[in-house]
Design a protein that fits this description.
The protein is mainly α. The protein has two domains: 88 residues, no CATH class; 206 residues, no CATH class. It is 66% helix and 4% strand. The chain contains 14 helices and four strands. Strands 2-1-3-4 form a four-stranded mixed sheet. Strand 1, helix 4 and strand 2 form a beta-alpha-beta unit. Helix 4 packs across helix 6 and helix 12 packs across helix 13. The two termini are 58 Å apart.
Length: 402
């Protein structure tokens, strides 16, 4: 007589079954190639946009002035345009003094504005507002050309390795990048669990498993199976990405990345841990949704609010980066579904380690609670369906006749 499996052993058997069936299938290769298509399309459009931006002409301003005044203004424009970090100044086009502004604005050569009498009573004509950037640039060019033609002062720059302002700004960039990557992976991979659950529910596989082991064990095994499948895909993607960076990136490019406050090794560990918690939290919620849905259409109807709520929680955690100890930041760290996004941002900003251990324990507690509720909902739907016609769902009930 064989002994019945314990809950942990049964969950491991279910996880191993789902993991093997998923990873060894032909569709898993297409799953691994899936993220390459948006990356290639994004790179293609980025290249096209950069080419269009490079080929796009700067705005042109027609200047109605003498040759001497135009030369002074053009020299000032060249000096100001060569200053690093400033916006590109508009091109200047000499115009004859007897041409009206309306004729220049509608002529063959496209101009955005006409500047008349720059060193007397300057007048700028065009579809401009007084606070437009082009107006400010024209003022700077006139002021520079009107002053003494001394060369721009040279400033000696002494470069240091670390400054507090640069460190804080770099860590904020790392925090936002870590949150965006965690959100993208969770949103991309958590839907697999729901689709597989609906497929097995329609084939009565879930009911067979639930008759042999507790429903919580079935859900736990499926959650960890899909988590390991997702981690397998992430391992393949990250290895491919690191190999591409090592081959294509210029030397020292990786050292230019702003380091997080906890250091790269522990930050990578926390990234994996918070992804696992985020996936388990969302996966448990999706299992609860799948327990109430009987078809793919119902899944789409019920999962859309959850996806929108997930986007809102990501926005909440992203807004908490600037003020992590504000009420918004504390709420984002405490709410279980936004806690992984908020805490990965804190890992980049602050070197403390104990808050992350407490956050992981808090998130694990909510994984167990959501899993328990999802299993209870599923058990209720199975028991009601096994009793014949079963009870109608709340949106399918008809009002009682009076």
């Amino acid at each position: 007589m064989t002994r019945p499996l314990g809950r942990v052993a049964a969950a491991f058997v279910i996880a191993r079954r789902d993991y093997t069936a998923t990873v060894l299938s032909r569709t898993f290769l297409f799953f691994l190639l899936g993220p390459l298509f948006p990356i290639l399309i994004g790179g293609l459009f980025a290249g096209i946009g950069a080419r269009v931006a490079a080929e796009q002409e700067q705005p042109r301003v027609a200047v109605v002035a003498s040759a001497q005044d135009f030369a002074r203004l053009a020299h000032a424009r060249t000096e100001l345009d060569e200053i690093p970090g400033t916006a590109r100044f508009p091109q200047l086009m000499a115009a004859a003094g007897n041409q009206p502004a309306e004729a220049l604005l509608t002529g063959k050569k496209p101009v955005v504005a006409v500047l008349a009498d720059p060193f007397g009573s300057p007048q700028l004509t065009g579809a401009l507002a007084p606070n437009d950037a082009l107006v400010g640039q024209v003022k700077l060019m006139i002021a520079r050309a009107s002053s003494a033609q001394a060369p721009l002062p040279s400033v000696t720059v002494e470069r240091v390795a670390v400054t507090s302002g640069a460190t804080e700004a770099g860590r904020a960039v790392t925090a936002r990048a870590g949150q965006a990557l965690l959100f993208f992976l969770t949103l991309l991979l958590s839907g697999m669990l729901l689709s597989q659950f609906i497929e097995e529910k329609s084939n009565k596989v879930i009911e067979v498993l639930a008759a042999a082991v507790p429903v919580e064990t079935v859900f736990l095994g499926k959650l960890f199976a899909m988590l390991t499948v997702s981690l397998t895909g992430i391992l393949v993607w990250s290895s491919t990405g690191l190999a591409a960076v090592a081959l294509l990136a210029p030397p020292g490019a990786l050292h230019a990345l702003p380091a997080p406050a906890v250091g790269w090794p522990f930050f990578a560990f926390l990234g994996c841990a918070y992804f696992a918690m985020s996936y388990l939290l969302m996966g448990a919620a999706f299992l609860g949704i799948g327990a109430q849905a009987g078809s793919a259409r119902e899944v789409q109807t019920l999962s859309m609010p959850v996806t929108m709520a997930q986007v809102a929680l990501f926005a909440l955690a992203n807004a908490a980066i600037s003020e992590p100890y504000s009420p918004t930041g504390i709420a984002a760290a405490l709410f279980p579904l936004s806690s992984p996004f908020s805490m990965i941002g804190r890992a980049a900003l602050e070197p403390a380690i104990l808050p992350h251990l407490a956050a992981l324990a808090w998130q694990g507690l909510w994984v167990a609670l959501i899993l328990k509720l999802a299993a209870a909902w599923f058990r209720r739907s199975v028991l009601s369906a096994s009793g014949g016609r079963g009870r109608r769902r709340w949106w399918q009930r008809r009002p009682a006749k009076t």
